[in-house]
Amino acid sequence: MAAAVVCGLCLTGCGGGASSGVAAAPGSGGVVNVFNWGVYIDESVLDDFTQQTGIKVNYDTFESNESMYGVLKNDGASYDVVIPSDYMISRMIEEDMLEPLDFSNIPNFSDIDPSLQNPTYDPENLYSVPYMWGVLGVIYNTTMVKGTPDSWGLLFDQDYAGQILMFNNSRDGMGVALKYLGSSYNTTDEAEIRAATDLLIQQRPLVQSYVMDEVFEKMQSGSAAVCSYYYGDYRTMADVNPDLAFYVPREGSNLYVDAMCIPKGAENKANAEAFINFMCSTEAGLKNCEETWYSTPLLSVREQLDPELTGNPDAYPSSDFLTERCEVYQNLPQDILALYDSEWTRLMLASN
Amino acid sequence: MKNKSLSIPYVVWMAFFVVAPLVLIVAYAFTARDGSVTLDNFNNMGVYFPAFYNSFALAAAATLLCILIGYPLAYFVSKESLLVRKVAMMLIMLPMWMNFLLRTYAWMSLLDDNGLINQFLRTVGVFDLVNALSGGNMTCLHMINTQGAIVLGMVYNFLPFMIMPIFSVIDKIDPRVIEAAQDLGADNAMVFRKVVFPLSLPGVLSGVTMVFIPSVSTFALSRLLGGGKTLLLGDLIEMQFLGNAYNPHLGSAIALVMMVIVLVCMAVMNRFGEGEEGVSVL
Question: Which residues does chain A have within 8 Å of residue B244's beta carbon, measured at their own beta carbons?
Fold first, then answer.
């Protein structure tokens, strides 16, 4: 439904706007159709962009990489800018769903942290510009959990039966178990994946519920003690409930990068590039960072942020830690993806 | 002739938005990723038996509860004055003016272990009393993340669909029929058993249809109220479209099997209502 509306807007928008340039006068710039994660932006940035360029932003959100993928796969190019995560970007590149970017229209790209340029998911950096990044960790309630845990094991601890929240999607959920067992996130060894599922089935009686963004309410209200989520979200939750604490497990964790891309056949490509460039400006980057608490790829923004945040190893881990302990999700071959789904179904239908 | 041309918009609507999607589902269900015709999507259907079982069992429970709550309510409301009937129907419809998800979120914060109901029980000292009597250590009444909570969600959300058709059928029963029964010596219980109840069955049957079908295919309820621990068919199908593997073919196959089972259920049920008018879905 939402996609259809946007598609309609796109059709009307293209008539007047497709040919106008990058920095047209206000009111004449046409439109750009943006598809981003929910709660992942300071929305005043969109108005700033329209004011500066005259390009109207049609903003839409998705809940998971997979749902975004489903929408694009069905509708083709209804959107001009999408912001998927690393592994999904490499999958979309493989399936020829992304348009190469014209970096001469994105001069602010030079502000991107060099360690995030030419990433494994887009080795030649042709298709994507990093938007935010961060590290997955464990969030726990210090009034309910004893000691200072430092392992994924906390999520499998009998002492906290009924107070543990787990991811409600196969990639992240299996990832927790894989990492705890010492496997790679990107393993294609079927035995390792089955072992991870077996562990999750054992864990099932301890789990209060399988959730995604519902963790905010459950952790903030204290109805659950332990969950695994992202550092930026932890900051948001801790604003409400100061009893919460965060750590990156010693076994290692997931480093994720969400990056801006243009889907194949986008109708407002120049506007999309202008939008991406704007999002890489210090002004917009700073606003977004202060709103979402995620880690910025923009060096100039990092300089201006509160040193308490940029000096925090959970928000900005050292590059040693990132390279030695953290792994980026890579796109998995189709047969392994199918195995993930059937194993996840096995977990969800387990009778314990 | 005139009548025929008036029906064209409806026929077009049905063709585009009812028939075409059904054809697409069937087409997807019997094809593989590469477009070749196959039955593979149905091969592993047995694996999903627990999801089918969960869905049909919970939907049946919800439907039964809706009859038990909805029938007496509809019956007694229909005996009231016009004003009371109007206000009652308004109140029954009122929650439906709000979004389904919002209402379900409200139940989440009501049923939570630290939710409003438990806070209230704690404040008035119910748990202290229970603990004093039983010597236990009860801190909350655990309601959320259970199958009971899912059934509650279904009943709450779909109850008006049970009350409305029963009410409108009972409301339209000719009072002279009841008077005739009374004149012939039937007491109140007999009037209900022999006259009102049989005449109200078509309403019950369409109520059952309108509650059972959305309950079987519901999703989100199990995630929000059941903690994602009871996989229902709706969630299973959603997973095929929004999960890692993106397999609309398998998703369509599961949806198709579900539809066939629902149709069989409805056909069997309509047998019971044979001779009654205006309720058949087949």
Answer: 66, 169-171, 332, 337, 340-341, 344
